[in-house]
Amino acid sequence: MVRPPCCDKAGMKKGPWTPEEDIILVSYIQEHGPGNWRAVPTNTGLRRCSKSCRLRWTNYLRPGIKRGNFTDHEESMIIHLQALLGNRWAAIASYLPERTDNDIKNYWNTHLKRKLAKLQSGSDHEEVSKSSNIRSISKGQWERRLQTDIHTAKQALLEALSLEKPNIDSSQSGMSMNYNDSSASESSSTSYASSTENISRLLEGWMRNSRKTESGRCTPQQSFADTIAAADSNSSEGTPSNSHITLPGRMVSKWGFESSTSDVSQSISLDEAVNFLNDHSNILFQDESKPNLETQVPLSMFEKWLFEDGMVTQGQEGMIDGLSLSVDH
DNA sequence: AAAGTATCCAACCGCCTACAC
DNA sequence: GGTGTAGGCGGTTGGATACTT
């Protein structure tokens, strides 16, 4: 039996997403929420397959995604988790809430794999191969253990968390507002698809145009060319602006951008927008696929449980240390 | 400056699983 | 229980960019 394609491939567009497509998708998701991807191309008129829409959202448009360089801590976490879980990128990504599985996978394939390979062919080959043996032995044990214990452990940790909630740095919360986000602003790529902040610039520009055209109404499509121009001019300035906001979908509605047929009936300042985001972040992101950070097991606790309880008792802490120390930065 | 090579990463492909009927 | 479908996942590709010669 041959599986039919997820959608009719004929007439479906492929390749990089355009700003307009992104806005249409974001606008649709703000109205309907993520999910039911099959209906997205039909309802939005996007000539994209449902999978493509889902991927674009989860890997790029979804709020809370951190882009740019991986920190040392993130890097060591990936190495540790990959050693324990294998190439289960989605599982690994669940412990790095701001990173997508695709990002982690790419980072592993392009950076970490090479680093580890370099290490393995290094001078301390003997020690490395010893660690590799330990790793191959421990992986199965740990997978089993993880399967059986992870739920219990998480429950316990969540209970502990509910007693003393850690202060979550706003810069690390699931809500990503890219103003002052150095990692985002670092990206100086000129291609549209490589920069999330372009979406915010786009929307910001669109808002500006909305105000400008309030008296003489025009459709989003009509003002789109101006918006692109505004985004481009912002982009060329090079320095990040405090007004660059990565907009979750529902925000767009608040500002009046509903669909191609909607009127531009509201306009608010960016400060107001930030306040709105702060006030509504719990609502805005509650149904995202990524876990809420408040319900996410903190990495330090997870690591502690993972490595102290297991590795130490099995005399394997050297493996992890060896791996993390071996990663030259 | 131009050509060749390496690297990065967004997006696609195909397989698998869960679920509805 | 069997079948069809949607969504999720990991592997891979290809275009763009960066770097080297």
UniProtKB/TrEMBL annotation:
<keyword id="KW-0539">Nucleus</keyword>
<feature type="domain" description="HTH myb-type">
    <location>
        <begin position="66"/>
        <end position="116"/>
    </location>
</feature>
<keyword id="KW-0677">Repeat</keyword>
<dbReference type="GO" id="GO:0003677">
    <property type="term" value="F:DNA binding"/>
</dbReference>
<dbReference type="GO" id="GO:0005634">
    <property type="term" value="C:nucleus"/>
</dbReference>
<dbReference type="GO" id="GO:0009733">
    <property type="term" value="P:response to auxin"/>
</dbReference>
<feature type="region of interest" description="Disordered">
    <location>
        <begin position="167"/>
        <end position="194"/>
    </location>
</feature>
<feature type="domain" description="Myb-like">
    <location>
        <begin position="62"/>
        <end position="112"/>
    </location>
</feature>
<feature type="domain" description="HTH myb-type">
    <location>
        <begin position="9"/>
        <end position="65"/>
    </location>
</feature>
<dbReference type="InterPro" id="IPR017930">
    <property type="entry name" value="Myb_dom"/>
</dbReference>
<feature type="compositionally biased region" description="Low complexity">
    <location>
        <begin position="182"/>
        <end position="194"/>
    </location>
</feature>
<dbReference type="Pfam" id="PF00249">
    <property type="entry name" value="Myb_DNA-binding"/>
</dbReference>
<dbReference type="InterPro" id="IPR015495">
    <property type="entry name" value="Myb_TF_plants"/>
</dbReference>
<keyword id="KW-0238">DNA-binding</keyword>
<dbReference type="InterPro" id="IPR001005">
    <property type="entry name" value="SANT/Myb"/>
</dbReference>
<dbReference type="InterPro" id="IPR009057">
    <property type="entry name" value="Homeodomain-like_sf"/>
</dbReference>
<protein>
    <submittedName>
        <fullName>Uncharacterized protein</fullName>
    </submittedName>
</protein>
<feature type="domain" description="Myb-like">
    <location>
        <begin position="9"/>
        <end position="61"/>
    </location>
</feature>
<feature type="compositionally biased region" description="Polar residues">
    <location>
        <begin position="168"/>
        <end position="181"/>
    </location>
</feature>
